Amino acid sequence: MNSVAGCADDALAGLVACNPNLQLLQGYRVVLRSDLDSLKGQVALLSGGGSGHEPAHAGFIGKGMLTGVIAGAVFTAPAVGSILAAIRTVAQVGTAGILLIVKNYTGDRLNFGLAREQARAEGIPVEMVVIGDDCAFTTVRKAGRRGLCGTVLIHKVAGALAEAGAGLKEITERVSVVAKAMGTLGVSLSFCSVPGSSKPTFNLAADEVELGLGIHGEAGVRRIKMATADQIVTLMLDHMTNSSSVSHVSVQSGSSVVLMVNNLGGLSVLELGIVADAAVRTLEGRGVKVARALVGTFMSSLEMPGLSLTLLLVDEPLLKLIDAETTASAWPNTPKVFVTGRKRTRAAPSRPSEAPDFTTEGLLSKRMALVLERVCTTLLDLEEYLNALDRVSGDGDCGTTHSRAARAIQEQLREGPPPASPAKMLSELSLLLLEKMGGSSGALYGLFLTAAAQPLKTSTDLPAWSAAMDAGLEAMKKYGKAAPGDRTMLDSLWAAGQELQALRHPNANLFHILTKAVESAEAAAQATKDMTAGAGRASYISSMKLDQPDPGAVAAAAILRAILEVLQNLESL
């Protein structure tokens, strides 16, 4: 940031600079709709609070939601003068009254309330609703329930009513009823960092999670041990719907709800997806119908690594208000259909029918199984070594990726022997690796095996195996964009492929050629430590740091060595 004092102003300036539908009120920390003059005769909606909760509240300004927002400094209620200036500005365009939507915090209540009283003294019709949707506390608190992410749903409902032409009294009464039918609960892995403050707002052990915290970094009501997403979501929903708690949401089997999964600022989208899945599954498992599911960042707490869940009980009229159109930039474009009851999977496509095997020899199938078993054992033994090599030039998972492939092949072999047809065996192996191995290695092996299978469909003599190797290498070059000398797995395979050209000659000595091919592959793998990477992740690393052979090349050479040794053993029997 540029400065602690100016961070809230700079953030609002950035929002307005990038959104032509918004304007700043000169001299105040206020953001308004740029089409304010078009609201003559319509109820206006103002909200706000401390900064640090972005995209709340300014992200929810727009047709069908808020008219404007008054912002304070980070986690600080906005000034009375700014609130009053916003009220006067909106009133001067001829609006039919103003509703202030305020989260239940002392500073917000006081400052918005004082501004309301002054505006009413000036003859401006102003009403105020105070939103408290916190489900954390189980007993009555004098201060009431804190205002949390559910406030955004009130923005939406009130905005839809205002857009439909409802009057100030009606909107105030209806949103007051809606606010009583919702609840929110937060959970976090850690505190947030307040600009200008070097001290944490609370401390957590590495294996603890804070339950029921607010949106200003304040501690929650309970600390729990780290658990899985499913377990934490279950605990949250149990707490939110526990009828013995005065702040519970009366959700029961048969209820319809809007679910909000809100990022408190520091979670990845991946984690939100995991939590959303757990929440929907848990609710539906209890007979609750999820009408809409809103997942994203709606009301954050700076960069806090946590989330909140909000449940709002809904019926069809209320759903129509939730679904009503809005131009607010932070409101998600959610399908206007029930989440529960929708079919979430589509049947996988059936595999294309294949020509019958031209050979069904059981002996060949058994030999293939022995080869595959040895390859798997080899890769599993090399897991840690390959990971260590990969940490130099990649993300350190090359061994893990190859072990994942090995375990998938072993599982397949336990289900039954491989096909006797080499072409079919390579094709099935390709599909397995593409699905189970993952990473670029899985894609490259899949390409190689798919292409290599083609020449073997019509013949399995020695020249056909050489042609299969060539076809696989060309596919890897074409789609992997690597060439021999680029310090990749292709270096080992390419060296072996050059030796296998000799299989095309009459009276070729299979084992002599295979031995030379494997030795060439191993030599090429070791030679990669002296190469400058030209493809893959290693190409982004300075060659000065790459003093170890490429793990992919080492793995490919090891696979070829394993194949050779099994074939030699079988030949000696």
Q: Give the name of the CATH architecture of the largest domain.
A: 3-Layer(aba) Sandwich
Biggest sheet features: 6 strands, mixed
CATH fold-level assignment of the largest domain: Rossmann fold
Radius of gyration: 32 Å
Terminal CA distance reads 74 Å
Secondary structure class reads alpha/beta
Q: Look at the structure and name the CATH superfamily of the largest domain.
A: Dihydroxyacetone kinase, domain 1
How many domains would you count in the coordinates? 2
Assign an overall shape. Answer: elongated
Protein topology:
Blueprint: H1 7-17, E1 22-24, E2 30-33, E3 44-51, E4 68-74, H2 80-91, E5 98-103, H3 106-121, E6 126-131, H4 150-163, H5 168-179, E7 182-188, E8 208-211, E9 222-225, H6 229-241, E10 256-263, H7 269-285, E11 289-296, E12 306-313, H8 316-323, H9 362-381, H10 383-393, H11 398-415, H12 422-436, H13 439-453, H14 462-480, H15 489-500, H16 510-527, H17 551-572
Parallel strand pairs: 3-4, 3-5, 5-6, 10-11
Antiparallel strand pairs: 1-2, 2-4, 7-8, 7-12, 8-9, 10-12
Helix pairs in contact: 2-3, 4-5, 6-7, 9-11, 9-17, 10-11, 10-17, 11-12, 12-13, 13-14, 14-15, 15-16, 15-17, 16-17
Keywords: ATP-binding, Cobalt, FAD, Flavoprotein, Kinase, Lyase, Magnesium, Manganese, Metal-binding, Multifunctional enzyme, Nucleotide-binding, Phosphoprotein, Transferase
Protein name: Triokinase/FMN cyclase
GO molecular function: ATP binding; FAD-AMP lyase (cyclizing) activity; glycerone kinase activity; metal ion binding; triokinase activity
Please describe what this structure looks like.
There is one protein chain. The chain is α/β, with parallel strands linked by helices and 573 residues long. It folds into two domains: 6-323, Dihydroxyacetone kinase, domain 1 (Rossmann fold), CATH 3.40.50.10440; 363-572, DhaL domain (Serine Threonine Protein Phosphatase 5, Tetratricopeptide repeat), CATH 1.25.40. Helix content is 44%, strand content 13%. α2 packs across α3, α6 crosses α7 (269-285) and α13 (439-453) runs antiparallel to α14. The longest helix has 22 residues, at 551-572. The model has no long low-confidence stretch (mean pLDDT 92).
